[in-house]
Amino acid sequence: MAFSSSITTKELARRLGLLKRRSSSISSNKEGQPSKKKSQIFSYVIVLDFEATCWKEKLNGHHNEIIEFPAVLLDLSSGEIVDRFQHYVKPSEHKKLSTFCTELTGITQEQVDGGISTRQCLKYFEDWVRKWKEEKQFTFDQNLNCKKRCALATWTDWDLNVCLKYECKRKGIQYPNYMKSWIDLKKTYKEFYMRPPKGLRHAMEEVNLTFRGREHSGIDDATNTAYLTWQMIKDGCQLVLTKSLLLNVKTVDEVNKQGKIESTKEKKENKSTDTGSIQQKENKENDEIRTPISVGHQNPMLKTIKITPPLCKCGRRCKRKKVMNPGPNIDRVFYSCPESRNSGCKYFKWEEKLLSRTTMSKQTFTPRDQNTKIQFETFKKRSELKDACTNLFNT
């Protein structure tokens, strides 16, 4: 077997089968580094990263609308990007993009004018998901005993828990059930590497990856998030659901919370069996009764209690309102003066504070804890006296 003298060493090695071509997938490991991959619950993830209308200064009545809907299907067994999905969406509430939005995202007015509606885009996305679901034989239902599972993944909860959720609510679009559970990769990154990332580019640089493309371009951000996801898996991270709007799906926080509750119960049982004293058990019961009630605006038990709106300083009956703007207080209920915007007083109070007073007044006590009962009755009388004095002063 003769070869021409002009053939390079690399070409000769390739012909002899000594040199293998590199795979085009993103799963190439560094030489000399053993794989730390753990077995994954999911076989595929679909990475989403919406781009939405935005303004340099926050304006009243201006809500974010999706203008770019990108998605990347990542195979978690090989690190291969199977397919990409992208559509530009035409906003209907504020049709003209701000200069700030165009400069930030690179999306032009012509691109959104030629786009499709949010409703149509969700249908196209569902068709795209169904196509790969049938081909790869995976499911989004976490309760089914299926070998291949798929989950949605985003960088922060904003995309699915704020942007899409409230846009569907405003426009009367049904929020698809399979999009109500997802993995927050930023939270997963923080808990796995035990350091908070400053952003997607910074997180990639921390694990020796290079950001490719343009920042705040939806499809580029989704692709780079997929690269980062695969690197986290190679480093030994196991992906689990971090957020769900469905009642029958458990997230990692709920599982951890349930585990802590069970462990504390076991500790209490062991402690009581070791002491074997009835007097200590009675003291524990009394301590539990004296424990103050923690009230928060996300406590589901408070939703069953109905209260009468209080009187403001003007003597009017307060109006019950709800925070709609995205932020830490979203969906929080408060009471304020009905004429606060005009000539009314500036009365303001969160609903949970009023509910806490109601729950304390309705608290039941055992005869063994008379001291606690007297304390709460005194508190109730003082609060009633204070309200009566306030109303008398206003009149």
SSE layout and pairings?
Elements: H1 9-15, E1 44-48, E2 51-52, E3 66-75, E4 81-88, H2 99-105, H3 109-113, H4 118-136, E5 150-154, H5 158-171, E6 181-184, H6 185-193, H7 200-206, H8 218-234, E7 243-244, H9 252-275, H10 278-290, E8 319-322, E9 333-336, E10 348-350, H11 351-361, H12 370-394
Parallel strand pairs: 1-5, 5-6
Antiparallel strand pairs: 1-3, 2-3, 3-4, 6-7, 8-9, 9-10
Give an account of the 3D structure.
Keywords: Exonuclease, Hydrolase, Metal-binding, Nuclease, Zinc, Zinc-finger. GO terms for molecular function: 3'-5'-RNA exonuclease activity; nucleic acid binding; zinc ion binding. It comes from Clytia hemisphaerica. Residues 263-272, 281-290 have a biased composition (Basic and acidic residues). Residues 312-354 form the GRF-type domain. With 395 residues, the protein is α+β, with helices and mostly antiparallel strands. Among the domains are: 44-244, Nucleotidyltransferase, domain 5 (2-Layer Sandwich); 319-356, no CATH class. The protein has twelve helices and ten strands. It has helices at residues 9-15, 99-105, 109-113, 118-136, 158-171, 185-193, 200-206, 218-234, 252-275, 278-290, 351-361, 370-394; strands at 44-48, 51-52, 66-75, 81-88, 150-154, 181-184, 243-244, 319-322, 333-336, 348-350. The strands form two sheets. Strands 1, 2, 3, 4, 5, 6 and 7 form a seven-stranded mixed sheet that branches. The longest helix is centred in the last third of the chain and has 25 residues, at 370-394. The model is unreliable at 20-25, 27-32, 281-303 and 362-369 (pLDDT under 50).
